[in-house]
Amino acid sequence: MQDFTDNFGQAVGLILQGDWELWGIVLLSLRVSLTAVAIAALFGMPLGAALAIGRFPGRRFAVLLMNALMGLPPVVVGLVVYLMLSSSGPLGVLQLLYTPTAMIIAQFVLVTPIIAALTRQAMEDLHAEYAEQLCSLGVSRAASIPTLLWDGRASLMTAFLAGFGRAIAEVGAVIIVGGNINHVTRVMTTTIALETSKGNLALALALGAILILIAVAVNAAVALLDSTTKGMAHADRFDS
Predict the structure, then answer these.
(1) Of 178, 30, 163, nearest to 96 (Cα)?
(2) How far, in Å, CA of 154 to CA of 235, rounded?
(3) Which residue of 88, 179, 210, 233 pairs with 98 in a disulfide if CB–CB is 3.0 to 4.6 A?
């Protein structure tokens, strides 16, 4: 118990004193995850909207596949990205393996299906609500996508935050493609695993506390946005 108290006290000290190694790891984690999620949103949101509104052969299979990809095993994603970026792989000439870019690619693959699936659900609900109005205005299904994406921006922010929460907590894929190199690709999750195995529990606890705070903040933001969205929808029904 005394050891835990000592380690916890040291962890708090590292956070409050602004330890440069600690906050360097945190900043790298945020940069990698936010970049991956932003790129995933650029691809996943239009894809989810197209699947929600479009009607084409194979649409049901595409939806099922996207939902299945939400459960991709991170270590498998890491392995595939590793093989693609390795010197013998098709993208080996880019020399991206063991760089933050490789970690961004792995997180992008993991997060895109999540954002696309959540976007599809939100857009289906909005399209069901506004389909008759859009049709009366002569707006085609394809042309209605930007309008619905804008109208559902609160729900889309929820999808973005959910993707970020998934990315920031990832360890399996990023440790395979990043290599956990000090001051290069060492992020919070991989550092926690490494420092725990080395017995440096103070740094691991400090990073764990920050990671938990980020997770709590993301979940609180999702809950707040969800309640706000439902409140706006209720107000719209009441006004109508």
Answers:
(1) 178
(2) 15
(3) 179
Cβ–Cβ < 8 Å for 169, 187 = no
In a domain, 5, yes or no: no
Domain presence at residue 4? no
Total-model pTM: 0.86
> Per the domain annotation, does 226 fall within a domain?
yes
Could you give the 3-state DSSP secondary structure of residue 176? Answer: helix
Query: Count of CB atoms within 10 A of residue 226's CB?
Result: 13
Contact in structure between 148 and 141 (CB atoms under 8 Å):
no
Number of domains making up the chain: 1
- CA 8 – CA 5 distance, rounded (Å): 5
CATH number at residue 107: 1.10.3720.10
In a domain, 141, yes or no: yes
Residue pLDDT, tens place only, 172-221? 999 999 999 988 999 999 999 998 888 888 989 999 999 999 988 888 88
